[in-house]
User: What shape does this take?
Amino acid sequence: MIELAAVRKRFGRHAVLDGIDLQVPTGARLGIIGPAASGKSVLLKLVCGLLRPDAGQVMIDGTDITERSEEGLAATRARIGFLFQNYALFDFMTVGDNVAFPLARRGGLAEDEIARRVSARLRAVGLAGNEAKMPAELSGGMKKRVGIARATIAHPEIVIYDEPTAGLDPVTTSKVYDLLRADQETTGATVIAVSSDVEALCRFVDTVAFLYQGKIRYQGAAQTLTDAPDPVVRQFVRGDLEGPLEG
Ligand SMILES: Nc1ncnc2c1ncn2[C@@H]1O[C@H](COP(=O)(O)OP(=O)(O)O)[C@@H](O)[C@H]1O
Ligand SMILES: [Mg+2]
Assistant: This one.
C-alpha cells in the first residue's frame, strides 16, 4: 500500500502540492490526471523518493520514506520501476543494455541469464531481436516500449509511468496500454500512471485522481470519470473551452 498524507511541496514561493492525501492499495492501478504543471510529475517523484516533501508523509507498506536516509531510499527505489517523461533511455547504451540496466545494477545474476531475460522482455513488448540497436535508431513508440521493458524487467512491486504514451499516435497508445495492462495482470504490481491521454488511461487504470491547484480535487472509478459531478473535472475531461477551470 502506498499512502500519501498531508503532503506539501513548494518550489520557492510556488506551492505545487498543497496537502495531498492519497492511498493506493497493493496491486491497484491508479491514474493521475490534471492540467499541465499541476504537479503530476512532482507527485510521482515524491513516491519514488527522488524528491522529499516539505511536510507530510509518503508511506510505502507502512514505512515513511521521507524519514529514510539516502541509503534507505536507494533500497526503496530498488522496489520501484519507473518510466520518466523525458529522459527515458540512455542514448549511449544499446537497447539491450538499457533494458538490462535494473538487473545489472541489482547484481547477483549471470550475464547469460540477464541476456535471456532481456530477450524475453523485448519479445513481450514486441521488440524481439532489437538488443543491438541504439535508441537513436528507434521510433518514438519503440523507445517508449524499450522504456517499459526496462521499467518492468526486474518485476518491481511498484511501477510508475509518467506519460508513457506522450507523442504517440492513438493506435500505438492503445497498444502501449494493452501492454501495461497485460504486464500488470501478470505481476500484480501496484501501478501509478500519469497521462494526458485521459481516455486511454481510463481504460487501463481502476481509479483516477484529478490533481488541481495543489490538491486531489476528485478521485473515483475510471469508468465513471465522465459522469463526475464536479464542473472543473467535467470541463477538463471534455476539453471544453468554457468553464470554471483556471489555466
Ligand atoms: N525541481 C524543480 N524546481 C523548481 N520547480 C519545479 C521543479 N520540478 C517541478 N517544478 C515546478 O512544479 C510545477 C509542477 O511541475 P510538474 O510536476 O512537472 O507538472 P506536471 O503536472 O505537468 O507533470 C511546475 O510549475 C514546475 O515548473
Ligand atoms: Mg509531468
Observations:
- The CA atoms of residues 125 and 179 lie 7 Å apart.
- The pocket of magnesium ion (ligand 2) is lined by residues 40-41, 85, 162 (CB under 6 Å).
- The chain has a mean pLDDT of 92.
